[in-house]
Specification:
Length: about 300
């Protein structure tokens, strides 16, 4: 129905590219960073200025000045912290994630917004990421039957989208992604903070969740570099004051797009298509573009706290 150039929209901030999760984790954990797999936190207790953590799997207890919980949207650590209410949005939709061999333009992403279905194809290096989804009651028939239904409902699919459906059908165990998000009332507790999806888990509709998690981590690390132990609480409070509204603004944009994308019914679909003919991607992603263009200064934020301003 329309084509938009995301690369041009974001070019002043760098290249717009996709990366698969496994390679991203390899990059983030490079440089000798120690990693312990199959380990979670069973208990956190706070004593004075230290946090004592009991780990499962490793069967050890250790003390830390600060615990940073970045264990995802289904964070177990979040349940152990006094961070207030955790709000969850359930779109009532979900879908399967799979991979497809590259076809055609390696920089082109495609999305089909259907009446009760969604099909997306996204380029990463050497292949295409695929998402096929719909309302939970419709996807209950399984990936093969649901892909067949989409083929029947939308007979004039492009070659890439047909190949994407074939990839989901042929995948012996495609990952099913329930499209929900979470938002914690507070990020900072005594001796601990929530970071990334553990604090605010995103719907994938705006493609900004991982980027906001890394911004939050960058802000936290840079601000902590200025902090002494006596300043820790004040620096963490300022970090949350600056960063949480930014993350929640991007999360709200993802929720708005989900309301637009995940619709059912021919009349509603027709109204959406009418709107999308006039709504540019710049307008749809405007709040996120403004966030990227107006990044906070972590060093200035830390100094503001330490100087008592």
């Amino acid at each position: 129905m329309r084509m938009d150039d995301l690369g041009a929209l974001l070019s002043t901030h760098g290249d717009y590219q996709g990366i698969e999760r496994g390679i991203l984790i390899d990059l983030l954990s490079a440089g000798g960073l120690p990693v312990s797999f199959d380990t979670t936190i069973d208990r956190i207790t706070f004593s004075g200025s230290e946090s004592k953590v009991e780990f499962s799997g490793a069967a050890i207890t250790a003390s830390f000045d600060l615990v940073v919980a970045a264990d995802g949207i289904h964070s177990r650590t979040r349940d152990l912290l006094p961070i207030g209410k955790v709000d969850e949005v359930d779109t009532g939709w979900g879908g399967w994630v799979s991979w497809c061999d590259p076809i055609g333009d390696p920089t082109l992403g495609e999305e089909l917004w259907g009446d009760g279905c969604f099909l997306g194809v996204y380029p990463v290096k050497g292949r295409l990421g695929v998402f096929l989804g719909g309302p939970t009651e419709r996807t209950a028939i399984g990936p093969v039957a649901f892909a067949d239904r989409v083929r029947a409902d939308v007979p004039k699919l492009s070659e890439r989208l047909r190949s994407a459906l074939d990839a989901v059908s042929a995948d012996p165990d495609p990952y099913f992604w329930p499209l929900t998000d979470v938002r914690s009332e507070r990020w900072v507790a005594a001796g601990a903070v929530l970071l990334g999806d553990a604090a605010a888990g995103f719907l994938p509709t705006a493609g900004i969740g991982a980027a906001m998690a890394m911004e939050s981590a960058w802000m936290l690390g840079r601000m902590l570099a200025h902090a002494r132990r006596a300043d820790l609480d004040a620096v963490l409070a300022e970090w949350e004051r600056v960063e949480r509204p930014r993350v929640e603004s991007a999360q709200a944009n993802s929720r708005v797009l989900a309301n637009l994308m995940f619709r059912r019914g021919p009349v509603v679909a027709w109204l959406r298509e009418t709107i999308m003919r006039a709504l540019t991607v710049k307008a749809a992603l405007g709040p996120i573009v403004r966030l990227i263009a107006d990044q906070p200064d972590p060093d200035e934020a830390a100094q503001r706290v330490l100087s008592g301003r």
